[in-house]
TrEMBL record:
Transmembrane segments: none annotated. Pfam families: DSBA (PF01323). SUPFAM superfamilies: Thioredoxin-like. Residues 20-221 form the DSBA-like thioredoxin domain. One of its GO terms (molecular function) is oxidoreductase activity. CDD domains: DsbA_FrnE. InterPro entries: DSBA-like_thioredoxin_dom, Thioredoxin-like_sf. It comes from Chroococcidiopsis cubana SAG 39.79. This is DSBA oxidoreductase.
Length: 230
């Protein structure tokens, strides 16, 4: 799934050159939001004029999660052994991302979601050229506002905020459309040996996890240099 987020003039005044970034993510992963923020900052610091296109690939960390999700306290307590330990992990995330301008609101989260509908919505948004905007809105809705991203009405509202037709989104999510396509994209990620998220492919380099802005900037510059040579 793709979305162009930056358009600049061509290298050395020539025809615009496109650098494609492939990102595999799940909406339940806080580090995916951190990576999005850091990657955006790295792109802004990139001095070479370039057109950036993002391809978004779905990954479900909890593929067997009930369709409506689960009570977050119950799910996390069972997964991590106690609610206290779960809260400690949340605090670690907040501390690690303190310089990224993200106000995580774990206190507002009531549900650990099944993310298939959110991935389907991202796939739908790609057809409308809005994949990046949609992905970023869903991530922020969940992690900074505690919204239930399993809920069709919630997702339709978020879609409207990025310029999509809420009625079309609602009808789409209440159907089975897009499920086969999203599952096929997940299988593609598995075939590339992606076992966790976030995974970011920039040029010939694959970066795993929430690395620093400098790491992303270096990878971007290397990829741009290779495009220039080509």
């Amino acid at each position: 799934m793709n979305g162009v987020i930056v358009k600049r003039s061509g290298i050395n005044g020539n025809k615009p050159v496109t650098l494609t970034i492939e990102i595999t993510l799940d909406f339940i992963c806080p580090w995916c939001l951190v990576v999005d923020k850091r990657l955006n900052r790295a792109i802004e610091q990139l001095k070479t004029p370039i057109e950036i296109k993002r391809l978004w690939y779905p990954f479900e960390l909890n593929p067997t999660m009930p369709e409506a999700g689960m009570d977050r306290k119950t799910y996390r307590s069972n997964k991590f052994g106690s609610w206290e330990y779960s809260q400690a992990l949340d605090a670690q995330t907040m501390q690690a991302a303190i310089g990224d301008g993200i106000e995580f609101r774990y206190d507002l989260m009531q549900v650990t979601p099944n993310t298939l509908k959110a991935h389907r919505l991202s796939w739908f948004a790609e057809q409308e050229g809005k994949a990046t905007e949609m992905v970023e809105r869903i991530l922020n809705a969940y992690f900074t506002q505690g919204q239930d991203i399993t809920n069709v009405e919630t997702l339709a509202k978020l879609a409207k905020e990025v310029g999509l037709d809420a009625d079309k989104v609602r009808a789409f999510l209440n159907s089975t459309e897009g499920i086969e396509e999203v599952k096929a994209l997940e299988e593609q990620a598995a075939s590339r040996n992606i076992r966790g998220v976030p995974s970011i492919k920039i040029g010939r380099e694959t970066i795993v996890g929430a690395q620093s802005v400098d790491v992303f900037l270096a990878a971007l510059q290397t990829a741009v240099n290779e495009l220039e040579v080509a």
